[in-house]
C-alpha cells in the first residue's frame, strides 16, 4: 500500500538525465574520416580516454563515436557513490589480485588525484561532496563481515572508523542498521550526468571530434589500420578503444566474459528540513550495505534520497531500457526503502530507472585485445566504475600504445576474467541466482547450494 502510493506519480526515466541543461548532441558521423585513435562509447570510460589521450599528445587526432547520446548507458544512471578503489573495493581486490594489491592501492590513490585534478582544471562542477562512504551491516549476522572489512582497511592504512548500532543510527537513522564502517578519505557522491557532460565539454575543448547517434556496426582489420563501419559512415583508425562496457560492442567475443544485468534505482522527492531531521544524515555519506543483494543510498544536492539495488536480467542483455519499466521490481525496491526508513512514510518517488551493469567473474574492469593489438576493450566494472572508469581508460590506452609501465605486467592488466556460459544457460542461471538471492535467507536449502556453486564459477555471492 505504502509503496503503491509512493510510486503513484513516478516517471520511468533517470533523474540525472532529466535536466533542461542537457547539452545538445554532436552531429552524427556521415561519410568517411580518419583518426589516430577511435574511441567507441560515450560513457565515462570513453570520455576519460578521449581526454587522457589528447592531454598526453595534443596533436593526436581523436574521434569518439557514441551510439545514442553521451551518458545514455551506465554513466547517466548510477548511484554515483565514488570510491578510491579501482577494483570494486579493497575486499574484491584482495580476493582477485592478492599479488597486485600494493600496486592497486597506489594506482587507486593516483587515479582519484588525477580525477580531482581534471575536475579542477576544466572547471567541471558535478555537485561532488567528499564525505566518505558508509558500509552498514543490515542485521546482526552481518557484523562479522563488517569487522573483517574494518581490519582489512586498517591493515592497508585506510582512514576508517568502526561504529556500533547507536553510533551508526546517529549518522543515519534506520532500525535495520546494526553497525557501520565509515571510510572517510577521497570518497563521496556526485552528479553523474553533470560529470559526463563536463567531461564532454572538456574533450571538445581539447579538440576531440565527438559524433553522437553514430552506432558502430563492424570493425575490419586492414593491416596497419582498422576500418570501423558506422550507421552512416566509416572511420579508418590506427587504434581503437572499445569503451562499450556492458553493451560489449566491437567484437563478438567480448560477451563471452561480460554479462549485462540491470540494476534499478528510485529517487524520492526533495525531503523537507523536518523530514531530514527524522533521518539525521548530516554527514551526507554515500551508503552501501553488506548484503550480496545489497541496497545503496545517498542524498542529492537538493536532499532527495537515491535508493538503489534490485538486479534484473533480460534474455540476451538487450540495450533498450524501455523494457524495464514494469512497476513490479520497483515496488519491491520501494518496500525495501520503507523497511530502511519507516519514519519517511509520507515521502513519494519522482523517478525510477534501471541501468546496464557489466558483470564479470572478477567484478572489476579488465582488458581484451583484438586485431593484433590495434583494438582494446576496457570494461566490466560490475557496478563500481564512476571513478574506476578513468583508471580503465588509462590502462586501456597504455595497452593500445604498447607502453612499458610496471602495472601492465600485473595480473589485473594481463589476464582476463572467466568465461560466462552463453544463452540460454546465461538467462536460466541469472534468473535462478536472482531468485535464490531473494529467498536464501528465509528459505535456505538448495538456494544456498546454488549460490555456493555460482561462487565457485567466480561470482562472490555468499
Ligand atoms: C544502476 C547503476 C548503479 C551504479 N552505481 C554506481 C555507484 O554508485 N558507484 C560506482 O562507482 N559505479 C556505479 N555504477 C557503475 C558505473 O555507472 C559504470 O561502471 C560506469 O558508468 C561505466 O562507464 P562506461 O563508460 O564504461 O560504460 P557506459 O556508461 O555504459 O558507456 C558505454 C557506452 O557505449 C555506447 N555503445 C554501446 N554500443 C555501441 C556501439 N555499437 N557504437 C557506439 N557506441 C556504443 C553506449 O551507448 C554507452 O553510452 C552503477 C551502474 C548502474 C547501472
Automatic annotation (TrEMBL):
Q: Where is the FAD dependent oxidoreductase domain?
A: 36-391
Per its UniProt record, what InterPro entries does this chain match?
Answer: FAD-dep_OxRdtase, FAD/NAD-bd_sf
Q: Name one Pfam family in it.
A: DAO
Keywords annotated in UniProt:
Oxidoreductase
For whether the record's keyword set contains Oxidoreductase, the answer is yes
Q: Does the keyword ATP-binding apply?
A: no
A GO cellular component annotation here is: cytoplasm
Q: Name one GO molecular function term.
A: oxidoreductase activity
Protein known as: Glycine/D-amino acid oxidase-like deaminating enzyme
Taxonomic lineage from the root: Bacteria, Pseudomonadati, Pseudomonadota, Alphaproteobacteria, Hyphomicrobiales
